[in-house]
Amino acid sequence: MKTVLYGGAFDPVHAGHVFVGHEALRLMAPSILILIPTGLPNPDFDKCLSASDADRMAMLQLAFARVPDVTISDFELSREPRPSYFVDTLEGLRPSLGVDKPVLLLGEDQLYSFPQWHRYQDILDQVELWFVPRAGRHCSDTPEVPARALFAINPFDSLSSTLIRNRLQQGLSVDGLVPASVAAYIAEHGLYRGQ
Predict the structure, then answer these.
(1) pLDDT score recorded for residue 70
(2) In which pathway does it act (predicted)?
(3) In the prediction, which pLDDT does 142 show?
(4) Are 184 and 50 in contact (CB under 8 A)?
């Protein structure tokens, strides 16, 4: 059975994330999907989180509640506050991953910056790298980062967590862009408003 590791800020999780999760499970069957919300972001990438760890975990649980063979790992969230380096996460998860090489699933934009990841070559030695294509990106041809596309065309190509947050800040609807249960959670907890 293939283990697929799919990490990200999930700030918030959206319909594109859910679609990718479903497709990974379908195309790599039989497999299990481990979702890994980012802990403290690597400062090299100038990224910050808007929602709390607890809110991001809750939204992931709601979004994937009815999807079998999905686990949400709080590994990066439960570590002491320090930048999240995936090589450390991989080392920590190793005992639970079995003997086969796991798949690390990235967005193509992340694949583009992958050579800047901390000890990226050590990660490559331990995983099969797959990516979700993005329009206008062609970094899959980068010889130093061998990776396979999960599929040819991404129907959620223009959807991002940044877009969701921006719409919410402007008081616009996100219906259809996030699972209904996630939209309800965001509204109930007043997330991403006025930031």
Answers:
(1) 97
(2) Cofactor biosynthesis; NAD(+) biosynthesis; deamido-NAD(+) from nicotinate D-ribonucleotide: step 1/1
(3) 58
(4) no
Of 139, 97, 82, give the one whose Cα is nearest residue 116. Answer: 139
The two structure tokens encoding residue 15: 């319909």
Instruction: Select the more confidently predicted residue: 111 or 126.
Output: 126
What's the mean pLDDT in 34-46? 81
pLDDT tens per residue across span 6-37? 999 999 999 999 999 999 999 999 999 999 99
**DSSP β-bridge partners for residue 31:** 2
Query: Which residue type is seen at 12?
Result: P
Domain borders along the chain are 2-189
Interior/surface letters 4-20, b for 16+ CB within 10 angstroms, e for the rest? bbbbbbbbbbbbbbbbb
Q: Which CATH number fits domain 2-189: 3.40.640.10, 1.10.20.140, 3.30.390.50, 3.40.50.620?
A: 3.40.50.620
Rg value, the chain, Cα: 16
Query: Using an 8 Å Cβ cutoff, are 156 and 172 in contact?
Result: no
